Amino acid sequence: MKQQISLDINGRVYDLVISHRDLLVDVLRKKLGLTGTKKGCGNGDCAACTVQVDGEPTLSCLTLAISCQGKKIITVEGLAQPGGALHPIQEAFVNQGAIQCGYCTPGMVMSAKALLDKNPKPTLEEIKLAISGNLCRCTGYKRIIEAIEIAAATMSAQEVK
Fold it and tell me: What is this structure's pTM?
């Protein structure tokens, strides 16, 4: 059964015809070409597919696209600054070497963004908790945590100016 819906993704409204069973990750990647969101395990265990839905980190591999109608969806592509500059979180991940193979990176970045949006000065434990559902097979998470700490400091300093 197909249905027409509108999705607000990265500030742009898309009118789509989808099945009531289509997952958000598949709509993003296959219908809209937003391939920054990764489809890892497909059952909510790795969080590579994390996006923000109304400001909350959301596993897009477990979310029906139809349930997102009327909500604001942000993907990793939506974090870029005007002119295409990287978001401070993305920049910190690159500068700290926290991207490794890059497969988990979009989900990690989106989880970090959700944390820093709510808590601009998180403790080490709060950072660990925020990314605890995100799996990375390349690192011991040290550089990822450092990147989030640096991004938090950078973003806080930018707010002061």
Answer: 0.93
